[in-house]
Design a protein that fits this description.
The protein is built from ten helices and no strands. The chain is mostly helical. Helix 2 runs antiparallel to helix 3 and helix 8 runs antiparallel to helix 9. It starts with a helix and ends with a helix.
């Protein structure tokens, strides 16, 4: 009997993660568009990199439910207005309704970051990346927090993952360069 519980405790989290990854693909009608935009992001030919990046953020912000999208806008308004507790309540409400909506997790992670609550922010970023491994914003946020916490190698790793996805973003490139210098013992 104890063998079964050990097996279940090991296997079930992986099974849940796998099922979530399958359901995200099914729940996201704009997934193909996002994948095409992520390819274009690496070498935009007909428009500016910032336009492609902006369109990706817009697609990530679409849940497929207009009411949830409006709640996300409201939560972001609270966040940008410094009403962080109200923003967290709104983002938590979205997450309780649609836990597969990665951008709600990311918005709440950002709000926790703004409050200086890195523990909860990192926890939410873990969920974002489980749902959307290509989320360069979440990877950048994770890198910034890890750098602030003094985990320079882990921060560099997070920023380098973000850079592979979004290689033309100047802030990400600067963060990679800065962290490489810090780790080498030099400053920019």
């Amino acid at each position: 009997m104890t063998y079964f519980y050990k097996f279940a405790n090991t296997f079930v989290p992986f099974l849940i993660a796998f099922m979530l990854s399958l359901s995200v693909g099914l729940a996201s009608p704009n997934m193909a568009k996002i994948q095409n935009l992520l390819i274009e992001l690496k070498s935009p030919s007909n428009r500016a990199h910032s336009e492609v990046e902006k369109e990706i953020w817009a697609e990530w912000s679409r849940s497929g439910d207009q009411n949830l999208d409006m709640l996300l806008i409201r939560g972001r308004f609270f966040m940008q207005s410094g009403r962080l507790e109200e923003a967290i309540v709104v983002f938590s409400q979205i997450i309780s309704i649609e836990p597969l909506f990665a951008e709600a997790w990311n918005a709440r992670a950002t709000t926790f970051y703004m409050k200086g609550d890195f523990k909860n922010s990192i926890s939410d970023i873990d969920k974002v990346l489980l749902l959307n491994a290509q989320h360069f914003g979440a990877l950048s946020g994770l890198g910034a927090m890890l750098e602030n916490l003094g985990h320079l190698s882990a921060a560099l790793d997070a920023f380098q993952k973000a850079e592979k996805i979004n290689p033309l973003n100047s802030n990400i490139k600067l963060s990679v360069k800065r962290l490489k210098s810090k780790i080498a013992g030099t400053s920019l």
